[in-house]
Design a protein that fits this description.
496 residues; alpha+beta; 5-stranded antiparallel sheet; binds S-adenosylmethionine; SET_dom; transferase; nucleus; membrane
C-alpha cells in the first residue's frame, strides 16, 4: 500500500467508525482532505456550499475520548486523583491498543510532531532568546512521568502490560492532548443561563477576558429551548481545581481534524446536553477549508503548542522580557534590604490594586511596541531616591496610581529601558539583518523547524527594534527628574 493509500484508508476507516457510533451524524457537505503538501496534515473541506448555522457534524458525548468514557479509570482508581491533563494522558496510553473502541481514531492521530518538544538541542538553540524555550516544560513533564505515571503503569500490568509505556509515548500523548483536545463543560444543565459559555481556564489580562466573554456570547447560538447549544473552547494549558470540576478534558473525534486560523475561522464547536455540534459560523464556499480557531495566539505559542507558525502574519506577536532583568537593572543601586522593601511594597500593591507590576515577564505587543505602564512604574519605584520612596509609601497605593505618566518617561527611565531592550535583543542567536536574509533562503519544505524558529525570533526582534525607536523618541520635558537616582550603576554597585 502506498503512503497515500494508507493515509486515505485511515481517513475513510475513521469516518466509517465515527458514523457507526450511535447518534453520530456527519453531513455530506464536508470531507477529510490531505493537505500534507501544505504542511497542514489532514483538514476538513466543504464539498458543497454551506450556509451559516448549518451543522457540519454532530458527535454524541458518549463517543468522545475522555477519562469518564473510557473504562480504564474503573480499573486504575488512582486516575481519579490525577489532574485532568495527566489523567487523560494515562487513559490514552492505555487505550492506544488494537482492541480499543477508539482504535480507528488513534489511527488518524499523529505519531510525529513538529513542536519544539521534539526538536534536537541544536534546533532548540535556534530559539534562544524567545519565550518558547522557557515555556516548553519538558523537564517538568518528565518528572511527572518518572514520579507518577511510570510507577502507576508498573502497578497495573493487566492494564498497561501490552501498551507502549515509554517516555516517548507519554510525550506523544501529551502533545496530542495539547494540540487536539477540547475543554468541554461537564454538565451544562447545572449552569446559570448567563454562564453557559465555557470559559478559558488560562488567566489572561482582564481586558482580554472581557473581550473573550463578549466574543463567546456573540457566537453562542440557541437552537430552541430544549436543545440549547453553547460554544466549546479549544483547549488551553493551565489548570486549577475549579476548572477540573467544571470542564472535562476530552478528545472530540473529527472536531479536532479542523485546522486553526483565527482570521479564516468559519466554524465552531457547540454543545448541548448530549451532543457536540460543529456548526458553520459563516457561509462557506465549495472546496473551501473549514477552520476552527485556536485563539489569537502569537506565533511563539502556535509553534510551542501546535508546531506551526503563520508565515509573515505577526499581528498577535509579543516579546516577553523577564521582569528580573528590569529589577536587576533598576535596582542596581539598592542594597538587598532596600530592594526587598520596595519589592514587598509592590507585591502588596499588586495584590490590593489587582495590578501586575511583578508578573514574571513584561509583555510588549506588536500592536503597541511600547513599554507597558506597569513596567515603567516598576522601574520608577525601584529608582526612586530613598526619601522619595519613603514619601510614596507613606502616601499609600493611591499615590502610586496617581504618579503622572510623564514622570514615568524621564531621561533616567529612557536610559534604563534602552539598556534593558538592548540586553533582551542580545539574547537572540542572530540579529535582524541576518534573519532577514536567512528567512529568504530557508524554505519550509526543506527545513520547517528552522523556518519556524526564524519566523518567531525575527518578529520578536522587530518588535524590540520598534520599541527601542519609540523609547528614543520619548518627549522628555524635564531633563533630570529630582526624585530619581541615575539608572547608571554606581561604582560600588558595578564592583559588586
Ligand atoms: C487539531 S489538529 C488539526 C488536524 C491536523 N491537521 C491533523 O492532520 O490531524 C492541530 C494540528 O494541525 C496542524 N495545523 C492546524 N492548523 C494549522 C495551520 N493553520 N497551518 C499549519 N498546520 C496547522 C498542526 O500540526 C496542529 O498541531
Amino acid at each position: 500500500m502506498t503512503n497515500q493509500d494508507d493515509f486515505d484508508a485511515r481517513s475513510q476507516a475513521f469516518l466509517s467508525w465515527l458514523q457507526s457510533e450511535p447518534g453520530a451524524q456527519i453531513s455530506s457537505s464536508i470531507k477529510l482532505a490531505d493537505l500534507r503538501s501544505q504542511n497542514q496534515g489532514r483538514a476538513v473541506l466543504a464539498t458543497t456550499e454551506i450556509a451559516e448555522g448549518d451543522v457540519l457534524f454532530s458527535i454524541p458525548r458518549t463517543t468522545i475520548l475522555s477519562v469518564e468514557n473510557s473504562g480504564i479509570a474503573a480499573r486504575v482508581p488512582e486516575i481519579a486523583e490525577l489532574d485532568r491533563w495527566t489523567g487523560l494522558i494515562v487513559t490514552m496510553m492505555a487505550e492506544d491498543r488494537a482492541d480499543s473502541r477508539w482504535k480507528k481514531y488513534f489511527d488518524v492521530l499523529p505519531r510525529a510532531f513538529t513542536t519544539p518538544m521534539f526538536w534536537s538541542e541544536e534546533e532548540l538553540g535556534e530559539l534562544a532568546g524567545t519565550t518558547v524555550l522557557d515555556q516548553l516544560g519538558k523537564e517538568e513533564a518528565e518528572t511527572t512521568y518518572r514520579d507518577v505515571v511510570k510507577p502507576l503503569m508498573d502497578k497495573y500490568p493487566g492494564v498497561f502490560g501490552k501498551v507502549d509505556c515509554s517516555l516517548e509515548a507519554y510525550h506523544r500523548m501529551g502533545s496530542v492532548i495539547l494540540s487536539y483536545s477540547f475543554d468541554v463543560e461537564r454538565d451544562p444543565e447545572d449552569e446559570d443561563e448567563e454562564e453557559d459559555v465555557t470559559k478559558l481556564p488560562e488567566a489572561e489580562s482582564d481586558e482580554e477576558d472581557e473581550e473573550e466573554e463578549g466574543d463567546k456570547s456573540e457566537n453562542a447560538m440557541e437552537v430552541d429551548e430544549e436543545h440549547e447549544v453553547v460554544e466549546v473552547e479549544e483547549v488551553v494549558e493551565e489548570e486549577d481545581d475549579d476548572e477540573d470540576e467544571k470542564f472535562l478534558k476530552a478528545m472530540v473525534p473529527l472536531a479536532d481534524m479542523l485546522n486553526g486560523d483565527s482570521d479564516l475561522c468559519n466554524a465552531k464547536l457547540f454543545y448541548s446536553k448530549d451532543q457536540l455540534e460543529m456548526r458553520a459560523t459563516k457561509p462557506i464556499a465549495k472546496d473551501e477549508q473549514i477552520f476552527n480557531t485556536y485563539g489569537d495566539l502569537p506565533n511563539a505559542d502556535l509553534l510551542r503548542r501546535y508546531g506551526y507558525t503563520r508565515f509573515g502574519k505577526t499581528k498577535n506577536d509579543v516579546v516577553e522580557i523577564p521582569t528580573q532583568i528590569a529589577i536587576d537593572a533598576a535596582g542596581v543601586n539598592l542594597s538587598e534590604l532596600h530592594l526587598k522593601k520596595r519589592m514587598d511594597f509592590m507585591l502588596e500593591y499588586d495584590e490590593q490594586q489587582d495590578e501586575d507590576l511583578l508578573d514574571d515577564s513584561i509583555q510588549i505587543t506588536i500592536s503597541t511596541c511600547a513599554i507597558p505602564t506597569s513596567a515603567l512604574l516598576l522601574t520608577y519605584i525601584l529608582m526612586l531616591k530613598p526619601a522619595a520612596f519613603r514619601d510614596l509609601r507613606k502616601q499609600g497605593f493611591e499615590a502610586v496610581s496617581a504618579i503622572p505618566r510623564k514622570s514615568l518617561k524621564s531621561a533616567e527611565q529612557q536610559d534604563l529601558w534602552l539598556s534593558i531592550l538592548r540586553k533582551k535583543m542580545n539574547m537572540y542567536k542572530t540579529d535582524v539583518v541576518t534573519d532577514e536574509n536567512l528567512i529568504l533562503e530557508t524554505k519550509a519544505d526543506q527545513n520547517l523547524n528552522l523556518r519556524n524558529a526564524i519566523e518567531v525570533r525575527l518578529s520578536e526582534k522587530r518588535i524590540l527594534e520598534a520599541t527601542i525607536k519609540k523609547v528614543k523618541d520619548w518627549k522628555i520635558r524635564v531633563n533630570k527628574s529630582k526624585e530619581l537616582i541615575s539608572s547608571r550603576p554606581t561604582k560600588r554597585a558595578r564592583m559588586a
